[in-house]
Amino acid sequence: MLNAGKIKLGLVSSMALVFLLMLFSSGTVAGQTEPFSAMEERLTGLSDQKREVLENLFAMEQEIEEAERAEEAMSREMETMHGEIAGLEKRIADGEAAYDQKRDTLKQVLRTYQRLGPGSYIEIILDAENLTMLLRRINTLRDLTRNTGELLDTLEESRERLSAEKAKLGEKLALLQEKQEQLRASLRKKLQLKEDQEKYLASLEKESADYREYLGEIRQVWGQLKPLFQETTKEISRIIAAGSFPPDALKTTFTFPVLKGSLGEETFNGILKGHAGLPEIVFRFHPGKAEMSLPQQNLVLTGTFVIQEGDILKFQAQEGSFYGLPLEAAAIEDLFRDDALVFNFHTVMGGSILQGIHIQEGSLELEIIIPTLFK
Where does the secretion signal sit in this chain (predicted)? Predict the structure, then answer.
């Protein structure tokens, strides 16, 4: 009876734990989608005229964001350059100190030569009492003159190295000045864009407050989308790289010397749907282009795939929209700034090589070369 009670208690505890995990998971998903659903409700029913105004405002917002990103990137680059310039200046200062020291040493040696004169060297040699002493003195004088020559060579090398470092410093300083001018131009552009946006909002008169509110809400959900999207692309790339495919996912036909594989969009979407860590994500394949959408976040991206390293497909987004509002190229680029969306088929292909890809209606058609057939 005691054992049965323990088993029953353990079973109840396990069920409670599973229920809590399910509750937490659903709450997390709801928390992720709630602001996007609210935004969709707000925009539903807007007239074409109001939507056009909102498109213009959102386009301006994206331009301002891009100007801010450019400003931040240039500031980071300039900070790096300041560090490089400081390092160059220190190397030049150290090199000049070493150069001065070697030059002073050479001066002392030359003064010694001048004071003794060539006659003194002849006397030193002739005063040798025997052949052994004579040879030793000749070798000593030879070493002395050789060391002087080496010192001269070292001094010349130091001078050339210093000249090169100073030239490099001059280039860095000129580049820094150029970057400073670019930064000032970027700041002016950002201020002008914000001023244009404010003027546009002011021209809307009574509806200005409503559009400011719309714009603020879009700005907020766009900011929430970016980290979610980046985590999503990272997870999709991980799933593909792990080879999480059912055995019949890739339909293959062989026409010597090429193996052709067909990956249907429904099969691919089914693979992604089976992973709880992903939001709802849908891929659609049409002739010459692929469409990637996050329906709950109202994000749609269209583009194509390019082959990298023989077994990797990289998605290159070319167009996009957010709640039906067009995305600028810079905004699309920002979505993929940290992680590209890549399909790494290395595990699945086992050393085979992707030779070509064709996007057809409803499927990806892959052309694969198997190197072992040609050995």
Answer: 1-30
